[in-house]
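Customer escalation, tier 2.

The customer says the design service returned an amino acid string that "doesn't look like it belongs to this structure." They asked us to rerun it and document both sides in this ticket. The original structure tokens are below, unchanged.
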């Protein structure tokens, strides 16, 4: 099965604004770069992924995609995740992908094993939606659609339930994939606190820990 990984990327300056209390804008830009590089690296290790498609208006994301041999689709400006995925959907259809999996860059614990396992759940039936929620069950931390244009994405508030409702409305079989590594994203200070206690040493996690440990320890001494 030909599965394309779709990676939407905001302008780096706009990414991770909720982490502004502990990271400067330059630190958030650096973190965003490391997260994108790590995401592409993980996807390249997955035997289930045929093509990696990065969609962004950011020139730095384009350069990272070029260096890592990922396909890059340029947007004129940031128009949100749903618009970025619509661009990637056109490319996927034109290149005869059987399915696509949307992978945000803010999944620092993601592994190729997670990606492979999620893709295996889509082997049957011919039409299905495989979704991995956020830890709060309000976001869609990974979304696999088979075929690739099965339905439009709904990455707004409460996207997990929005995608479930949309699939149910169209009679699409739904499979929920639960992985603690996928469910733990990086969107808030609380997410950082959870991440600080994980035994992971990839570049974005190491960078984040080096920048925020002191400030977070002052408010939460239980952080390792």
């Amino acid at each position: 099965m030909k599965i394309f990984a779709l990676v939407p990327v905001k302008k780096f300056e706009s990414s991770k604004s909720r982490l502004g209390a502990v990271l400067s804008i330059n630190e958030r830009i650096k973190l965003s770069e490391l997260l994108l590089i790590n995401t592409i690296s993980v996807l390249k290790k997955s035997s289930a992924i045929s093509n990696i498609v990065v969609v962004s208006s950011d020139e730095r994301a384009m350069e990272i995609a070029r260096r890592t041999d990922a396909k890059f689709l340029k947007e004129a400006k940031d128009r949100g995740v749903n618009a970025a995925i619509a661009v990637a959907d056109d490319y996927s259809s034109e290149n005869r992908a059987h399915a696509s999996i949307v992978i945000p860059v803010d999944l620092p614990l993601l592994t190729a094993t997670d990606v492979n396992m999620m893709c295996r759940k889509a082997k049957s039936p011919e039409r299905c939606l495989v979704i991995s929620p956020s830890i709060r069950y309000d976001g869609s931390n990974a979304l696999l659609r088979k075929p690739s244009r099965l339905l439009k994405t709904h990455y707004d508030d409460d996207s997990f339930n929005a995608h479930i409702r949309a699939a149910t409305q169209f009679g699409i079989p739904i499979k929920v994939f639960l992985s603690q590594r996928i469910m733990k994203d990086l969107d808030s200070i609380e997410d950082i606190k959870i991440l600080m206690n994980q035994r992971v040493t990839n570049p974005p996690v190491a960078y984040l820990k080096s920048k925020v440990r002191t400030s977070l320890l002052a408010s939460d001494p239980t952080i390792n």
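Tier 2 assessment: The sequence is consistent with the input. The chain is about 40% helix and 15% strand. The first helix runs from residue 25 to 45. Sent an explanation to the customer and offered a walkthrough call.
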